[in-house]
Amino acid sequence: MVGANLASRDLKAKTAAIVFDSSNDYSVGLAKAFRTQFLKNGGTIPIEVQAPGGSKDFKAQLASVKAKNVDMIYMPIYYTEGALIAVQSKQLGLNKPVVGGDGLAADQVFFDVGKDAVNGYMTTDYYSPNAKEQTPAGETFIKAWEAKYQQPTHTWGAMAADAYNVIVNAMNQCSDPHDRVCVNEKIRATKDFQGVTGTLTLQNGDAIRSAVINEVKDGKLAFRTVVNP
């Protein structure tokens, strides 16, 4: 959903291609979410192509994508194949905005193999300490974390803090904070909770939350923007 809203709202894309790996649940899940939301936003997806994990030559698929002249490419795959696709896209003259999930640039391989071809690639994530606007909880968390650990915060630490605080918030709403039934009900009813990573609502067991968009600049990820639900 986040990638689709970025494509529609920020990139103003009307058409998109999806490059994904149908043998990978992570890739399939993100592709499905993007497809559903992008179509809901009024966009069209004239082409979807496969990028199987372990493959090295993607030029045929990329040539097909180039022929469709789409506004952007959604690529929910991992770093090794992502880097190769970036290099081969540049060789083919396929120069369209690319958005991927958090797995796309999750390893240094993406930057080492992709080099300047990956500049401009965007990835979704749950948190960035470099976001221009932090929630009050986020500002407090960053100061406390850096004071204790003498290093920058990271996504997993911030998400763990949010999980803990959601539980505490639920316990505080129960007359008996040890009442597991009450606490569970209050957790599931969480709405517009101002956490470290942004605004969080739980809906049918799923987290509806703000998300961060990072962009590759000069060989590393840099904060670009926040996309809200």
Provide a quick synopsis of the model:
The protein is built from 8 helices and 10 strands. With 229 residues, the chain is of the alpha/beta class.
What does it look like?
- It is a single chain.
- It is globular and about 65 Å long.
- It has a 7-stranded mixed β-sheet, with helices on both faces. Strands 6-7-8 form a 3-stranded antiparallel β-sheet, with no helix packed on it.
- It folds into 2 domains: 1-125 and 210-228, Response regulator (Rossmann fold), CATH 3.40.50; 134-206, Rossmann fold (3-Layer(aba) Sandwich).
- It starts with a helix and ends with a strand.
- It is built from 8 helices and 10 strands.
- It has 229 residues and is of the alpha/beta class.
Helix/strand layout:
Blueprint (H helix, E strand, L loop, with lengths): L1 H9 L4 E6 L4 H16 L3 E7 L8 H10 L3 E3 L4 H14 L5 E3 L7 H7 L7 E4 L10 H14 L5 H18 L7 H9 L4 E2 L4 E5 L2 E4 L1 E7 L2 E8 L2
Parallel strand pairs: 1-2, 1-3, 3-4, 4-5
Antiparallel strand pairs: 5-9, 6-7, 7-8, 9-10
Helix pairs in contact: 1-2, 3-4, 4-5, 7-8
Task: Supply the key terms.
single chain; 229 residues; seven-stranded mixed beta sheet; three-stranded antiparallel beta sheet; 8 helices; globular
